[in-house]
Amino acid sequence: MRIGLLGTGPWAEAAHAPAMSRHEGLDFVGVWGRRPEAARELAERHGTRHYTDVEELLSAVDAVAVALPPDVQADLAVRAARAGCHLLLDKPLASTVARGRAVVEAVREAGVASVVFFTTRFQPETREWIAARAERSDWFTGRAEWLGSVFTGDNPFGASPWRRERGALWDVGPHALSVLLPVLGDVRRVTATAKGPGDTVHVVLDHVGGASAVMTLSLTAPREATGVSVELRGGGGTSRLPESSDGAVPALTEAVDALLAAADGGPPHACDAAFGLRVTEILAEAEARLGADDGADTPPASSDAER
């Protein structure tokens, strides 16, 4: 499969470009970015071509991988799908429901495959844990903590304008939802509060199967307090998400494999654009609840992408 990379930031450098240049099933055709010089440098490091015209790249590939802010990603994903390109997208799919729905509609109309890269869903240990826990239907409650320290020190993602604007809810909230939703089911009500230091938010989810879950999310935690934990409690006792020994590149390689399988006529992947839209809808409802004086529950907007 001929694939192009859209984006030149730290995530493209650390994960996308290495994964695509090493994958035996890909022909890494080239790189386009909003900063032409950065695109040239990244392309040269990986022995491929840099493009200054995104339409020229889209016409030269079968698929694109996107490593760009969510609003930029959503608009380019629509253009790429309409050009007949399969999509390897990053989370969140978009920062508004309307933009996310536009991606899903473009994917459907063009008949292209899509995979959204939720890292935890493509790491073997965590993927298998999620699949095994999803086989049970008697979970009572869940708790997910995704705590980072992005805006301190020399973290390469700390300068990201969209992360500073949208905070942990939109950056690490998708990761937490990608673990909870396949196990506990879809969400029918959301409550959220921003009480806490920095961008820390607490989101309570009422799942359709009767279970509840709480997500605590932050990008401004002290370094000593950072980490990820997910715990489920139910009829089978207590179960905790295992740590993964794999980094981003092996996980992204798994995501590429998933895209190749879907593009080759296989069924849509569980983490396709429609799932990315559902995550976006829940995040948007949580954001709407932040700062609400009454703290009332609000059902997430219904999705025409629900499966």
Characterize the structure shown.
The protein is α/β, with parallel strands linked by helices. The protein has two domains: 2-120 and 248-269, 3-Layer(aba) Sandwich (Rossmann fold); 136-241 and 280-289, 2-Layer Sandwich (Dihydrodipicolinate Reductase, domain 2). It has helices at residues 10-22, 36-45, 54-59, 70-82, 97-110, 124-134, 161-171, 173-184, 248-263, 273-289, and strands at 2-6, 27-32, 49-51, 63-66, 86-90, 114-117, 139-147, 187-193, 201-207, 212-218, 227-234, 237-240. The strands form two sheets. The protein has a six-stranded parallel β-sheet, with helices on both faces. The protein has a six-stranded mixed β-sheet with strand order 8-9-10-7-11-12. β2, α2 (36-45) and β3 (49-51) form a beta-alpha-beta unit. α8 packs across α10 (273-289). It is globular. The model is unreliable at 293-307 (pLDDT under 50).
Describe the structure in brief.
With 307 residues, the protein is of the alpha/beta class. Helices cover 40% and strands 22% of the residues.
- In the sheet with the most strands, the strands line up as 3-2-1-4-5-6
List SSEs in N-to-C order.
EHEHEHEHEHEHEHHEEEEEHH
Count the beta strands.
12
Q: How many helices in DSSP terms? A: 10
How far is the first residue's CA from the last residue's CA?
28 Å
CATH topology of the largest domain: Rossmann fold
How many domains comprise the coordinates?
Answer: 2
Low-confidence stretches: 293-307
Rg, Cα atoms, Å: 19 Å
Strand content: 15-25%
- The coarse overall form would be globular
| Mean model confidence by pLDDT | 93
The quaternary state of the protein chains shown equals single chain
